[in-house]
User: Fold this.
Amino acid sequence: MTARYGKDFVVVGTVVKPHGIRGEFCIKSFADSPFLFDEVPQVFLDTGKKRPKPLSVKAWRMHKSMVLMTAAEVPDRNAAEELRGMDVLVRTDDLPEIEDGDFYLYELEGFAVSLEDGKDIGILSGFIEAPTQDIWVIATADGREVLLPGVPEFIRDVDPEAQRIFVDPPEGLLELYEKPEPKPAKQHKGVKARSRARGRSRGKSAQKSDRASAGKKPASGSKS
Assistant:
């Protein structure tokens, strides 16, 4: 799902760079299988505009864990270079059907996340693609983000009717994201020390002045 296009489109990859001189470009795919590109009738690019840009895919192939794609709208390397960094989208309605009990990750965004005992953690706000596993991003009520590895060991159950996910995070994980207690404000001892120093300085000056005045002899011609 994309914030720009709501639930009509889902991100399935990102254009990394052009490949060669004939308009081929590399895509880092987020799909479980790159054969998704065989099963959807069309792909789109998030160009930052109100509507995504459709691509007429001519062919694709795998190369070093990347998808190499050619499209009719991308005739050469210069055109492919302009796609660098753009998200690759497909319509959610075009996604292949999956078995009962399985979910596409985008369908879980916005679900409440709880411990198995029912204690709330927050709301599932998104996912981070990592080399070995997806990271689930949970937004807490006080504005923190908890990063939870999205593996069956920690994701215990999904209740689609209640829109709730039950998790069993690794020991100590939630404590890492707790806000520390605010520390009491420290007194600025330096200011007080300088104030006392000034006070002592004024006192010594006054004492010297008094002693000097007391030791002065009357000027000549003065009456005793």
User: Anything to note?
Assistant: Residues 187-224 have pLDDT under 50 and may be disordered. The helical segments are 36-39, 77-81, 173-176, 189-215. The first helix runs from residue 36 to 39.
